[in-house]
Amino acid sequence: MAVLQEYKCPCCGGAIEFNSSIQKMKCPYCDTEFEMEALKELDEVLGYEASETDNMEWETQAGGEWQDGEDEHLRVYVCNSCGGEIVGDENTAATECPYCNNPVVMMGQFKGALRPDVVIPFKLSKEDAKEGLRKHLKGKRLLPKVFKSENHIDEIKGIYVPFWLFDADANARIRYKATKVRHWSDSNYDYTKTSFFSVVRGGAVSFDRVPVDGSSKMADDLMESIEPYNFADAVDFQTAYLAGYLADKYDVTAEQSIDRANARIKRSTEETFASTVSGYTTVTTEHSNINLHNGKAKYALYPVWILNTTYKGQKYTFAMNGQTGKFVGDLPMDTGLFWKYWGIIAAGVTAAATLLITLFMNFGG
Q: Model-level pTM?
């Protein structure tokens, strides 16, 4: 049985064919011509890529075992509303859940789970968290006035959030579709010429401590927004660092966090390699292949201040990096103020348009 090989035009995607008059391959749709040797090289590249698959596997034996007696002063607090398990020391006065703001109940001595490898201790205080919120609210003209009063804060809690830190070496081969666009004109016409290029990049890049939070109750995008942390401050874990704070008990394992770690590594690798492709008008990724080596995960606790507040029955959660002070969180909008400012803007636009029409009419007269 004969097998027909169909070639797609790299420029427009149409089927290209051999043109005997020019002894080249030509696309009947965009009239782009191709040398046979160039198509042969492209065929080799595509054939090689067809056999490639990402290999992003990890060794996830993170965390160690608790030493005898090390966990005897830890207590577990369980939220009756969201079911979250929060770990504190025996002197922690846990009154409300830092996630949903409902009462928590002390259930008993902490047992089980893995022991963290490292912890980054809190550097910023509760007062720093309040100041961070004040700065976050400053200049927000459409913010409801009640939000500007710190007395409206329901609860501020310092909590150690569980993170899985992924280390790996990545070998990558990425192909990009690039264009160069040139414009020029003469006395009769405007011209545009678009040239298409296939650009290949390959190499290795190392990743250290790619963080993925191990708490299903903590929004991943919220935790990523307060990154980065300075790992130079990390120390070997000791239960003494939990004194006066809460610690979330991880409920997402290292194995369950691999997909998110792989997505972050893949995106970062593609962006890093793309930054080396310069001199083109546009650059888009057509194919990427990433293989990981020496992939390992560690278990860490990172400091986060959580601030909860309620407005018109809806809860708003803010987070501040307990080491660097980076502050994030969504804010409500006062719709009355919105329409007031919109009315002022619309009136200004109408007045400007009226003035322009008047000037035009006077000029025309």
A: 0.65
